[in-house]
């Protein structure tokens, strides 16, 4: 039987505190900091601020539920709504209002957010547009980090499979 | 004691995890007194043939304080809509 080529609709819960944990780790990563221009490197004050943001986010406990993986149709919708104009040999023109929104709209299926009266708010494009900018950025960053992690896992699987095939091919030829 | 329970509404959905497999209108659910089975009939406004084949499918319909949810046991598409047998409400 061939591999299943359909995306299984799994849901992943992402604590928004992880966004701040990653940001703090980047600020404390000496290799990453050395790669930056001296004036762009993190100061002690930047690190203290990032620690405070992480503590706030942990106390808040907010999370989002997202699709583990977008299927072909969802991925096309993200791209299709984002691109304003695309011509061969020219830079792609993006729709500025859609940057981030198309991806968030396709990925997010649930969240812990409530309204001013404490009532749960359903995920919708209207609700996303009414978020404060900090939350919007937290969600976008959380999804970007998730995509990076998923891609790394895919690459690792591909490398493993390639490595296995190569090893098998070598061992077969060595035995003949 | 009741002879038959009937719930009905104007809009509902069949969902597979987070995918909408079908948008339903004019839905009705009935359960007879001596039966444990609920029967759904509805008109289909929009459907996705691929998602309708997935399991578990859930029937969900909004009410004042949230959503009713039933697992779909069997599903039959008819010329005018669909007919399904449902498990117990979740």
Features:
A: 176 residues, mainly alpha, two-stranded antiparallel sheet, B: 90 residues, mainly beta, globular
Describe this structure in words.
The complex is a heterodimer of chains A (176) and B (90). Chain A is mainly alpha-helical and 176 residues long. Helix content of chain A is 57%, strand content 11%. In chain A, the strands form two sheets. Chain A has a three-stranded antiparallel beta sheet. A two-stranded antiparallel sheet of chain A has the order 3-4. In chain A, β3 and β4 form a beta hairpin. The model of chain A has no long low-confidence stretch (mean pLDDT 90). With 90 residues, chain B is mainly β. Chain B has one domain. In chain B, 4% of the residues lie in helices and 70% in strands. Chain B has one helix and six strands; from the N terminus they run βββαβββ. A six-stranded antiparallel barrel of chain B has the order 1-2-3-6-5-4. The two termini of chain B are 23 Å apart.
Beta-strand percent range of chain A:
5-15%
Strand order in space, largest sheet of chain A: 1-2-5
Q: C-alpha Rg of chain B, in Å?
A: 12 Å
Structural class of chain A: mainly alpha
In total, the number of domains of chain B comes to 1
From the spread of the alpha carbons, the general shape of chain B counts as: globular
Describe this structure in a few short sentences:
The complex is a heterodimer of chains A (176) and B (90). Chain A has 176 residues and is mostly helical. Chain A contains 7 helices and 5 strands, in the order E-H-H-H-E-H-E-E-H-E-H-H.
Give the secondary structure arrangement, pairings included.
The complex is a heterodimer of chains A (about 180) and B (about 90).
Chain A: E1 11-15, H1 17-28, H2 30-34, H3 44-60, E2 63-67, H4 72-82, E3 83-85, E4 93-94, H5 101-107, E5 108-111, H6 125-129, H7 133-175
Antiparallel strand pairs in A: 1-2, 2-5, 3-4
Helix pairs in contact in A: 1-3, 4-5
Chain B: E1 4-16, E2 19-32, E3 38-47, H1 49-52, E4 58-63, E5 66-77, E6 82-89
């Amino acid at each position: 039987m061939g591999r299943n080529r359909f995306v299984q609709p799994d849901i992943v819960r992402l604590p928004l505190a992880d966004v701040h944990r990653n940001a703090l780790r980047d600020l404390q990563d000496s290799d990453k900091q050395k790669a930056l221009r001296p004036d762009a490197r993190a100061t002690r004050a930047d690190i203290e601020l990032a620690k405070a943001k992480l503590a706030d986010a942990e106390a808040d406990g907010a999370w989002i539920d997202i699709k583990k993986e977008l299927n072909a149709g969802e991925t096309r919708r993200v791209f299709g709504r984002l691109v304003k104009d695309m011509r061969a040999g020219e830079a792609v023109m993006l729709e500025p209002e859609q940057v981030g929104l198309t991806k968030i709209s396709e990925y997010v299926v649930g969240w812990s957010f409530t309204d001013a009266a404490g009532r749960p708010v359903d995920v919708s494009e209207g609700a996303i547009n009414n978020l404060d900018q900090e939350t919007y950025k937290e969600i976008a960053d959380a999804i970007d980090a998730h995509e990076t992690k998923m891609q790394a896992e895919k690459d690792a699987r591909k490398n493993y499979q390639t490595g296995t095939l190569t090893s098998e091919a070598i061992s077969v030829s060595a035995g003949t | 004691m009741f002879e038959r329970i009937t719930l009905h509404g104007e809009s509902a959905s069949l969902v597979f995890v987070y995918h909408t497999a079908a948008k339903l209108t004019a839905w009705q659910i009935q359960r007879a007194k001596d039966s444990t089975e609920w029967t759904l009939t509805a008109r289909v406004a929009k459907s996705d043939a691929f998602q309708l084949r997935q399991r578990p499918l859930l029937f969900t319909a909004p009410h004042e304080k949230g959503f009713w949810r039933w697992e779909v046991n069997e599903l039959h598409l008819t010329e005018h809509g669909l007919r399904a047998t449902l498990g117990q409400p979740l």
